[in-house]
Amino acid sequence: MTTRATRSPRRRTVVALAVVLVVLIAFVIRLIDIQIVNADQHVSDARDKGMEVTSRLAGTRGEIVDANGTPLASSILLYDAKLDPFIAIQGINQRGEDGAVVLDENEKPVRLTWPELAVQIADVTGQDVADVEAIVTDALAADPHSRFAYLDRYISTAEFRALADLELPFLSFEPHPSRTYPNGAVAGNLLGFVGSDGKPLEGVEEMQNDCLTATDGSIRYQRGANGVTIPGTAVEEPAVNGGTLKLTIDADLQWYLQQLIAEETDRYKADWGGIIVMETATGKVRAMAETPTVDPNDPGASEPEDRGSRLLRYSYEPGSTFKPVTAATAIEQAGVTPGTAVEVPDRQVFDNGAVVNDSENHATENLTLTGGLVTSSNVAMSKFGGMVDAQTRHDYLQRFGAGQPSGLNWTGEPQTTLHPAEQWDSQSNYATTFGQAFTVTAVQVANAYQAFANGGLRMPASLIESCTTADGTVIEPDLAEPVQVIEKETAEQISLMLENVFAQGTMADDVAIEGYRMGGKTGTAQVSDGRGGYKSNLYFTSLVGYAPADDPQYVVLTVFDEPKKQRMSSANRSVFKKAMTQVLTHYRVMPSGSETPLLPVNG
Question: Which helix (H) or strand (E) holds 17?
């Protein structure tokens, strides 16, 4: 028989267990309510009370590098320092070197007041202490429960670290990637720049923005009333950095040629000048130097018209540099050879009434096709060109880029002109044989000579090597297919004639580089006056060539806009020789193994 005394302890135990169970069930129900049933409402309440914080994790804009990986544009981090006025005004417990809270004689925590903390902050930022104090007091005066104010914006990494080391719970930081160009003005006209808001405004920064742009992430966490982050509440969405953009440009060569063109442009008092170096086998642009230029670190220091690339945005009549296209057309379509001769006066009136003059007076002579190029005779090239119908000549000009885009897809690239053959008037019919009545860009001229030097195979001009995304994927540009613009045998004949231009022409001694065979041509184009005519005695001059001519490696094009000291293309001889010498030296190109075979100039 169970006694009352025996049953009493058991009953108490059961009651106690029941109470504990009820409490546990209540906790579970509350936990379910907080984390599941009303989770969104609780998060919203925390957010409204300033207990949930979301910070942007800034992705880094991608680098721009040269063909060898040398950084031309990169990003550094600046920071916005933000504070919580509501917490800052309350001060914080002072801590010793060991991190422990410092206690007073009554064993109470020693508090650092906001004015005392403002002194520590001002020591780091360099701000006036009173100004730092006012940030908090002014914010609270406007809103007694204010939870946000800027302490300072765009502070350096060093300042950020020094402030973070203070371990003040009311301080937080937001990173801001900022653009820097470690080589200054090197390739500045190509690189472009970004605005203070990070928006790309020029050059490849703008054109290749899809490659370079980063995707920001975020981190969301909850904090207690004292501003301290609650452990385990952080939810992070990582940022994705921008890709690395590799250019075809060689930064070292670019630097040298920029110094060179600046000196030579000043020497000949030209409005502007430029140099293009193109790899013969690939069409890759290894340098594109011009002056005036821009330092992307400080674009405001340059005039607006100097912040872009004139070499890519200026079109002009190529003049004599396109006479070899006429020669190639006549060889393939009229059956002429480098030795075919025509009678050449210094002034020719054609049957259709067109009048063509040579640049200098001379007695009537019998010039071969080679001679027409060596002497740069407009009359001779008009006669050879006239052996082929206008439509066919139009098509050959088009093959070599006239009236077509350069393929670089550059922002602001001009629309070059080549009117339909049926629209050519009597004068244009012959002017097109010596590089007038149509326009091209400097890149297209360089590309034409790349084709002459590459067996007639025109490779697409390119400035972009690749884009490597954050995950390592390498994306190469979608370039046009190579085009066989003339037959290989024709290109070889043109190349030998262009060698003779250098070997037998008036500039032979001025441009010769010992040990190297070279081929090329000068051009002196009239400059539009903007009213349908031409400026008087002012020209756009150029000299383009390649070396070694027996095994072509690089094309060099030099241009001057309106040189005043020496107004014709002879102004380009010095800069061309210096540029080509540097290119051959820089790339350690072996000298030629033979002399240029001389062709007959007169028939």
Answer: helix 4-32
What does the alpha-carbon distance between residue 256 and residue 494 come to, in Å, rounded to a whole number? 31
- Secondary structure class of 489 (helix, strand, coil): helix
Question: Cα–Cα distance between 181 and 133 in angstroms, integer?
Answer: 37
Which residue type, as a one-letter code, is found at position 515? G
**Which helix (H) or strand (E) is 153 found in, with range?**
strand 149-155
Cα-based torsion angle of the residue sequence 246, 252, 255, 258 in order, rounded to the nearest 10 degrees: -90
Contact 182, 71 (CB under 8 A): yes
| Helix residue spans in 454-487 (DSSP H) | none
Distance CA 541, CA 521 (A): 11
Q: What CA–CA distances, in Å, run from 159 to 165, 246, 331?
A: 10, 32, 71
List, for residues 109-142, the tens digit of each pLDDT value: 878 899 999 999 999 999 999 999 999 999 999 9
- DSSP tally for the chain: helices H, then strands E: 20, 25
Residues 6+ positions from 111 with CB-CB distance below 8 Å = 91, 92, 93, 94
pTM here is 0.83
How many Cβ atoms are within 10 Å of 384's Cβ, its own excluded?
26
Distance from the Cα of residue 77 to its chain's centroid: 21
pLDDT digits (tens, 9 = 90+) for 251-310: 999 999 999 999 999 999 999 999 999 999 999 999 999 999 999 999 999 999 999 999
